Amino acid sequence: MTYLTHPVRRLRDDPNRDETVTLLVTATGDTDEDALAAAVREFGSLEDRLRFGTVKVTVPQPAVTHVCGLSGVARVETANTLELDPTGAGEDIEPGA
């Protein structure tokens, strides 16, 4: 069963037809990464290949349903869930440390 984060479930259930979303799609352990990349390209643009069998793809929001339904997908999340704000921990880090 594919794990979908809460934001992905909301986009799947109520997409905005005029907007796109960038997703991180992770393959199951037995899925060929090239096959996954080719499959997600059918719905949008492949932005990057990341570690651990994950591809970054930008798709129209209505295509989220199709991406989530691909076979061989273990996890789908929005790309911003892994972004870190470099200024967020500024007070916790000593300059030059």
Structural description of this entry:
The structure is a single chain. By secondary structure, this protein is of the alpha+beta class. It has one domain (3-81): Alpha-Beta Plaits. 23% of the residues lie in helices and 30% in strands. Strands 1-5-2-4-3 form a five-stranded mixed sheet. The longest helix is centred in the middle third of the chain and has 9 residues, at 33-41. The chain is globular. The N and C termini lie far apart (44 Å).
Features:
97 residues, alpha+beta, Alpha-Beta Plaits, 5-stranded mixed β-sheet, 3 helices
Q: What is the fold's blueprint, element by element?
A:
Layout: E1 3-4, H1 6-13, E2 20-27, H2 33-41, E3 45-50, E4 54-60, H3 64-68, E5 73-78
Distance between the termini: 44 Å
**How much of the polypeptide forms β-strand, as a percent range?**
25-35%
Order of helices and strands: EHEHEEHE
Tally of structural domains? 1
What characteristic shape results from the CA principal axes?
globular
Classified in CATH, the superfamily is Peptidase S8 propeptide/proteinase inhibitor I9
Total helix count?
3
CATH topology: Alpha-Beta Plaits
**Based on the structure given, which CATH architecture is correct?**
2-Layer Sandwich
Helix content: 10-25%
Low-confidence stretches: 88-94
Strand order of the largest sheet: 1-5-2-4-3
* Rg over CA atoms: 15 Å
How many extended strands? 5
Name the average pLDDT.
85
CATH class: Alpha Beta
Instruction: Give the biggest beta sheet.
Output: 5 strands, mixed
Helix/sheet category: alpha+beta
